[in-house]
Amino acid sequence: MGANGFGASLCKARELNGYTQRQLAKRLGPGVAASTLSRWETGQMRPRQDRVRQSSASPS
User: Fold this and answer.
1) Which of 36, 22, 35, 5 is nearest to 14 (CA)?
2) d(CA 16, CA 48)
């Protein structure tokens, strides 16, 4: 599957902030592995809505 709008935006934001997938996954907390983040970025999976709200509220 190709990158979707959400996944492409997530990848761009992650890279602009200097995070690897592993670093961002750790920052997002339990239940988010680097492989999960990769699937979100490539459009293979979508995050749960509560996870999106949690990550958008996380301080930088």
Assistant:
1) 22
2) 23
The pLDDT profile of the chain, 60 residues, written as one tens digit per residue, is 444 688 999 999 999 999 999 999 999 888 899 999 999 999 999 887 766 665 555 555
Residue 25 has, within 13 A of its CA and on its CB side, a CA count of 14
pTM score above 0.85: no
Beta strands per DSSP E along 1-60: none
Both tokens of 18, joined, read 């200097």
* DSSP conformational letter for 1: -
Helix (H) / strand (E) containing 40: helix 34-42
